[in-house]
Amino acid sequence: SFGQATKAGGLTLQIGDTSDSYNQLSVSIGNMHTSAMGTISQIAGGYVLAGGEVWKLDSVPWKVTGFVQRNEETEEIEELGISQIASGVSHLLALDVNGGVWSMGTNLYGQLGTGNTKDSLTVPTRVLSGEQNGGNYLSGSEGNRITDLAANLYSSYARAADGTAYAWGLNDAGQLGLLGNGDAKLENQYELPKKVPSVGVGG
Known about the structure:
The protein is mainly beta. The protein is 3% helix and 47% strand. The chain is globular, with a radius of gyration of 18 Å.
């Protein structure tokens, strides 16, 4: 169950069986920071999604900024709302309200989807499209936007509305699910999103 209780020191989020202290995770956030965040809708690793904004839980929680786009009509920079997040061991994925996928954090195995394994990113950047058709960045076409994100240790995943899945990052144990995609030899890592072969389930 997911419980919520207010204490003198702030808000405590309880995840798991609230009657079992061993299988329960509590995150306490000071009152001033809770009010700044708004309603918390998701927790992933050390990140919180609240009111369309991403916050990093630290000794003092801070808002992650940089999810922006340029308005083609006004030429002004606009901040994008975030609808979903996922977290690996040291990287963050975020899905904006337009279906665009963003990443930040360490990039040792290409898990940020930027086409390289260069230095870690401390601000969000758009994930490149890789094997997804229709543009430079992973987002999808109208009516078939990216709808879901997931992350594992050093690997990243996204799913479009039509069910097509994409994966990138570490693949040393085949965790990207790319067997049968036509590659002569699977690599240990992929720095751009690869289309995951669909899997049929027998009756």
